[in-house]
Structure formats: C-alpha cells, structure tokens
Amino acid sequence: MIMKHCIGALLLVTLLLGYSCKQQEDRKHSRHAGKDKESMVRVNQYLVSKDEEIIENYIKRRGWNMELTETGLWYMIYRKGNGKPVRKDTRVTIEYSVSLLDGTLCYHSDESGPKQFVVGKGEIEPGLDEGILLLRSGDKARFILPPHLAYGLIGDENKIPARSVIVYDLTVLSVDK
Questions:
Q1: What are the pLDDT digits (tens) for 143-172?
Q2: What is the pTM of this model?
Q3: Which of 45, 63, 66, 140 has the highest CB neighbour count under 10 A?
C-alpha cells in the first residue's frame, strides 16, 4: 500500500515538473515569437518602402501623372468614359495587359480574351479589385500594383515572378449587375 502511494506521489511530482517546464518553455517560445513578429514587421515595412521607391522612379522616368491610394495602389485614368460607374458586386468586363516593370508582357486580352469578374468577390488581384472601383464603363486606366496588392511573395507560379510589381493597362468594356 505504501508502495502504491509512493508511486502515485512520484507520478504526480513528475507530471507537475513536466507541466512547469512546459510552461517555462512556452513563455520562452512566446518571447521569441514576439521578437520574430517584430522582425517580420520591420522587414515588411522595408520591402514596402523599397517597392514604393522603385515604383516612383518608374513613374518619373515615364513622365506619368499618377495618384497613390492609402493601400499603395498607383493609378491614372487617362481617358474618361461616360458609362455606368463600377460598384461592388457588379460584373465588369475589361480588355487588359499585365506587364512587369522591365516591360515583360505577362498577360493580355488579345491572347486570352477580355477578363470578366465580379467586383469585391476576391476573384482578382486585390489591387485591381480596389482600382476598378475608381472607374466607369469606357474608362482607360493604368494601375501599378506593388507585390502586396498583386501576387505577393510567390508570384502567380506561372508568368509573374515572386515579389513582382505589375502594371495593368486596361479599358472597362462593360459594367453589369
């Protein structure tokens, strides 16, 4: 009987020590995770500022007069249409070309046909989804999407490389409910 109590007490002490060590390890890991998160935020801020600098230089070299949204989307409406404005949940059809800053043409509607999508449903790049809301049917516009508004860290795993800034040149063909 005493042996059973001793074994029980020994098991209880072992469990308590294991739990205590686990808690200490979790706190230690949590401190490292916090530092890792801070580092990642700093790296991300640095990359976003470098992307912005690259885009600004690109725009300046071309002499474009573009505007910047709070999210980092650059846009220019260079021909105003007179059709229906684009709204969330409307179906939009566009003719488009997508290129990299080095001029490489990645995608275009001459090859794949006009692009159709419902605005605000996540069917397209976040930057295009944001920018299209600034337009109406008949507008011609240019958008420059930094990586965080385009294909991010990995690209599209096809023609757009990792962390690429992309340029959309587009015409809104139609806006439907």
A1: 999 999 999 999 999 999 999 999 999 999
A2: 0.79
A3: 66
Neighbours of 133 (CB within 10 A): 15
Q: Cα 78 to chain center, whole Å?
A: 25
Q: Hey, how many other C-beta atoms are within 10 angstroms of the C-beta on 58?
A: 17
The Cα–Cα gap between 96 and 100 comes to 14
Q: What are phi and psi of 118, to 5 degrees?
A: -100, 125
Alpha helices in the chain (DSSP H): 2-62, 109-112, 126-132
CATH pick for 64-176 out of 3.10.50.40, 3.40.50.720, 3.40.50.970, 3.40.50.300: 3.10.50.40
Distance CA(92)–CA(87), nearest Å, equals 9
Cβ-based neighbour number of residue 21 at 10 Å? 10
> Tens of pLDDT along 16-40?
445 555 555 555 555 566 778 888 8
